[in-house]
Structure formats: structure tokens, C-alpha cells
């Protein structure tokens, strides 16, 4: 649901996002409807394409961290 919101908020077509991510439009549709589960890397790419950032908020301090601030090793 959030993935579709990001895309439609920016008035982007599924075809545009799917092409930029090099995935099928039907795959993106599955992610948006909840029939398929994207990995976090794909969620980040979709958010970036839609000009959104992913934040993690520390509930105790209120401090915000962007997902790109965390070093990760791809599996």
C-alpha cells in the first residue's frame, strides 16, 4: 500500500518505475497489492525513484536516521 502511495503521490506510472528498476510491471503491481514481498533494497529503490526517503526513528530519543546512513553488506 505504501509503495503505491509513493508512486501515485508523484503521479508516476507503474511502467516508468518498473523500467527504471529493471523489473516487470506485473512484479511491481504484485508488490503494491501485497501479493509479492520485495526485499528492503527494492523498497529503497522504489522510494528513491519516487523522491521519498526512508527514516528510522528512535522512539526514546526521537533521533532520525536515514536508511542510507547504515552500512550494509548485501547477502
Question: SSE layout and pairings?
Answer:
Layout: H1 2-9, H2 14-21, H3 25-33, H4 40-49, E1 55-57, E2 64-66
Summary, kept brief:
The chain has 75 residues and is mainly alpha-helical.
Q: What is the level 1 CATH name?
A: Mainly Alpha
Inertia-based shape: globular
State the CATH topology.
434 Repressor (Amino-terminal Domain)
Can you summarize the main beta sheet? 2 strands, antiparallel
Task: Count every beta strand, where a strand is a DSSP E run of 2 or more residues.
Answer: 2
Average pLDDT for all residues:
90
Unreliable spans? none
What is the H-and-E element order?
HHHHEE
Radius of gyration: 14 Å
Q: Mind telling me which CATH architecture this is?
A: Orthogonal Bundle
| CATH-assigned homologous superfamily | lambda repressor-like DNA-binding domains
Helix content: 40-55%
Distance between the termini: 26 Å
Which strand order spans the largest sheet, edge to edge or round the barrel? 1-2
Strand content: 5-15%
What is the number of helical segments per DSSP (H or I, 4+ residues)?
A: 4
Structural class: mainly alpha
Number of domains: 1
